[in-house]
Amino acid sequence: MIDPKVTIMIPAYNQIDYIRQAIDSALSQTYGNLEIIISDDCSTDGTGKLIMDNYSNIPNIVYSRNQQNIGRVANYRHLLYDLSTGSYVINLDGDDFFTDKDYIKDAVKIINNNPDIDMVFANQYQFYESTGEYIPEGKNDNTVEIIGGNKIFTDINIHLTHLTILYNREKALKENFYSKNIIGADMESIYRFILNKKTAKINRVIGAWRKHGKNESGGINIENCIKNYEAILSPIRFAENSGIFAREEIESVKSKRLDSYTDRNVILATLISAKNFTLFLNGLKSVDQDFYDNYRKKSKIILLKTLVKLRLAKPILYFVV
Q1: Residue 39 near residue 10, CB atoms below 8 Å
Q2: Contact status, residue 103 vs residue 206, Cβ threshold 8 Å
Q3: Based on the number of CB atoms within 10 Å of its own CB, is 60 exposed (0-12), middle (13-18) or buried (19 or more)?
Q4: How far is 291 from 27, CA to CA, in rounded Å?
Q5: pLDDT tens digits for 101-110?
Q6: Residue 296: predicted pLDDT
Q7: C-alpha to C-alpha distance for 25 and 6, rounded to whole angstroms
C-alpha cells in the first residue's frame, strides 16, 4: 500500500518570531509522504525573507506569497483549495508548533487500517509564552478511540482543536470549508464535516497552541465575539436541515453549546469593563432572541448584573478565575 500524501498547511502573517519553530516542527514529522505549504499573507516584518533564506532549498517545502493581503480565513481557504495537493491535510498556524514528531505517521496508520475514517484528532498544549508554561488539554495515555462524528457533534465534553485535526481533503472541499469570515471558521467547518462520518482520536498531546497576547482567537472583541456565534449556529442549522437528529436532541446541543460559549465570554467581557458586559448582553439579542430571553433570566446572570451595578464584579471574578 502506498501511503497517502499529507499536506501540512502553514498560514503565516507577520510571524517572524515564531515561524521557524512552526516549520521546523513540521519538518521533524517522521511521516514520509509529506508536503509543507506555507501561504504568506503579505507579511511586512521579514517573515517571507526568513523563509526563503532558510527553507527554499528543501524539496518538500513550498512557499507562496499572496499578491495582496486576503485575511486569516481566506488564507486558510486558499491553502486548502488552491495550494494543497495531499489526500489528507492538517493546518498548523504560523505561531503554533507540533511537539510530537510521530503524530502524522500514527494518524495515517490508523486511517490505512480503517479506510472509512475521514478524520483523526488528538490533544494539545496551551503554551503561555510569557511564562514558558505548557498546560496539557485532555488525556495523554496514547489510547485510540474510534468515534462517530455524530457523537462528537452532540457531546460538548469532546474537544476538537484545529492544529491536531488531520482530515480528508477531497471530502472537505465538498463541504465548503473556511467559508465564513469569523474567528471560529475552523470549528464551523469541522463540525459540519464530521456529521455522518467516522473519526479517530489519539489520546495524547501532540502540539502547542501558543498564547502570546496577539492571537486573533484570544481576548475579546465584542463585535467579533457576537459574529462568532455563527460558528455554533451554522453547524446546528446544517444538522437540522439534514434531519440527522431528533428535534429535542439538536435543541439540547444548541442550548449547551450556546451556554458554554456565552458563559466564557460574559466573564471575559465583565473583566474588561461594566460597559463591555452590557454591550455583550445586548449583542445576544441579535444572535437568538429566545436564547437571550432565557439566558438573561438565569440566576448567575442576575447575580452578575447586581455585582456590576455595585462595581464588585471585576474583583470577585479576578479572585474566582
Answers
A1: yes
A2: yes
A3: middle
A4: 46
A5: 999 999 999 9
A6: 78
A7: 15
- Each residue's pLDDT tens digit, 201-251: 999 999 999 998 655 544 568 899 999 999 999 999 999 999 999 999 999
Rounded Cα gap, residues 193 and 191, in angstroms = 5
- 201: its cell numbers: 482520536
- Residue-wise DSSP of 155-216: -TTS---GGG-EEEHHHHHHTTTT-S-STTHHHHHHHHHTTT-EEEEEEEEEEEEEE-S--T
Task: Compute the C-alpha angle 155/212/39, nearest 5°.
Answer: 80
CA–CA gap between residue 12 and residue 274 (Å, rounded): 35
Given a contact cutoff of 8 angstroms between Cβ atoms, the answer to whether 92 and 19 are in contact is no
- Angstrom CA distances, 270 to 190, 200, 264, 309, stand at 30, 38, 10, 11
Q: Are 233 and 132 in contact (CB under 8 A)?
A: no
Q: What DSSP assignment string belongs to 118-157?
A: EEEEEEEEEEETTTTEEEEES--S--EEEEEHHHHHH-TT
Q: Strand 117-128 vs strand 166-168: parallel, antiparallel, or unpaired?
A: antiparallel
Question: What's 246's DSSP letter?
Answer: -
Whether the per-residue pLDDT at 317 is higher than 50: the answer is no
Residue 276: how many CA atoms within 13 Å on its side-chain side?
19
| Cβ atoms within 10 Å, residue 147 | 18
In terms of pTM, does the model score above 0.85? yes
The chain-wide mean pLDDT, for the chain, equals 90
Q: Backbone phi, then psi, for 13, in 5-degree steps?
A: -155, 115
136: phi then psi, degrees, rounded to nearest 5: -75, 145
Distance between CA atoms of residues 48 and 165, nearest Å: 26
